[in-house]
Amino acid sequence: MREQLNPLRAQSLSLLSTALHRYHQQRIVTLKMWYDNDPADEQIILRDHQSIKSQISGWKIHEADFPTAISSQQVCQSLRRHCYPLTDPSPSPQNEHSMLSALKALQDASFVPKTTSKPSNSVLRTDNEITYNVLWRFLQLRGFANEKHELTSWGVALEAAISSLDSADKMEEYVFVAIEMLRMGLVNGKDMTNIPGGAEHGSGK
């Protein structure tokens, strides 16, 4: 489990360091696990990792090119799931899932080619532009979208899982974590009843 998380830690640190002085982009980060008695420390050598910025620089899509699935009248109040119409302060079911909208957009055959053209030099200005470009970059970094800005098999699975939700349940984040755990092999048929933190009632089934 720890070894599986280290690439995510390295990716996160690499992403953060791109906005800092070059000194921080060359750092060797030592990991100390509070729960591990193993005296051997692990290290993340940032200079050995590919630049995150170059991987996601292609995402700079303006609202004029957004697919119809993403309404220009929405204002995303957070990166998680709350998108409200400008004219209505209360949440609307079709505006609940900004991640789902981002996933569905990458299934739009007329939209995807627009995302791979040469990025505009103009900055992202609106809440929607910033929110959705961050989501698309995030989906690519986590392997749910590829360098051609198309959904991978895991992206298709994530879209299908979130689409099956009732928007009123607000379970998008939990489904995302569950899919990530599936990728790591942590959601399986193994008996969890005798594992610390596992199920305390019922059987392993």
Describe the structure.
The chain has helices at residues 2-17, 22-25, 52-56, 98-105, 112-115, 127-141, 153-163, 172-183; strands at residues 28-31, 42-45, 74-76, 83-85. By secondary structure, it is mainly alpha-helical. It has two domains: 2-53, no CATH class; 57-183, no CATH class. The strands form two sheets. The chain has a two-stranded antiparallel sheet. A two-stranded antiparallel ribbon has the order 3-4. A hairpin with a 6-residue loop joins strand 3 (74-76) and strand 4. Helix 4 packs across helix 6 (127-141). The longest helix is centred in the first third of the chain and has 16 residues, at 2-17. Residues 75-82 and 84-97 have low confidence and may be disordered.
Blueprint (SSEs and pairs):
Blueprint: H1 2-17, H2 22-25, E1 28-31, E2 42-45, H3 52-56, E3 74-76, E4 83-85, H4 98-105, H5 112-115, H6 127-141, H7 153-163, H8 172-183
Antiparallel strand pairs: 1-2, 3-4
Helix pairs in contact: 4-6, 7-8
